[in-house]
């Protein structure tokens, strides 16, 4: 048993030592592999639970789930070491809502030498609304980084009730502002454009909001009347997405500053529109000191 434990400990040390010298291509592969393993483990666990409930044999499925978990943990251990190998990785890990896998993913996907401004990162992550993917053209963003940005947003939402979650609290504040503007009708034009941009189902709540029919829907409005004036508004899910995207873009702006300062030993170009929008002063990256 002691020899086995020693071998496992040595393997752990070897993985960590090797991970520190990972190249970006390897790191990207491992990040993608980690999330695939995570999905496989979740599916295997769900399948095993279903088989147990039905009284069916489940030993092999259980074994598969255990193997997936072991491999997943080993990959996470490697990414944990990799994310500690740079200043921006260490900074990212200090942010509530950002773990070693996401920190490693950002390091793997973003080359600061190809991102002189944070706008380059936003576009690469699919967060630039001016970038359109027209039929027959090459996708103007990186799908894996866009997925990672979505995961970051979801993570900030999950920690938004934590008092020290800088970006989670920012999401809450931004959502309240967006809701107030929406109720005041400031997004009526945006609602009309969104309604035209996509073919919405006639019975969907989204269409009711975008068209203004929500004012006559008892389901969506307790004060609904058949002749109520139409008030085009963004649906709650759209407001949620806007606030989440704001928090993610600010985080990436701060990530860019930390990485830029570390690499070039000088502050990055200013201003950061997302960092100062709606604020009297620039929001500095937390913990940058």
List keywords for this structure.
289 residues; mainly alpha; globular; disordered N terminus
Describe the fold and architecture.
The protein is mainly α and 289 residues long. The chain has two domains: 1-85; 86-187 and 234-289, no CATH class. Helices cover 63% and strands 0% of the residues. It contains twelve helices and no strands.
- Biggest β-sheet strands, sense, barrel: none
The shape is globular
Q: Which structural category fits the helices and strands?
A: mainly alpha
Number of domains: 2
Q: What portion of the residues fall into strands of 2 or more residues? A: under 5%
User: What is the chain-wise order of helices and strands?
Assistant: HHHHHHHHHHHH
Q: Into which percent range does the helicity of residues fall?
A: 55-70%
Unreliable stretches, pLDDT < 50, 5 or more residues? Answer: 1-8
- What is the averaged pLDDT score? 86
Gap between N and C termini, in Å?
Answer: 47 Å
Radius of gyration using CA atoms only: 23 Å
For the secondary structure, the number of strands is 0
How many H/I helical runs? Answer: 12
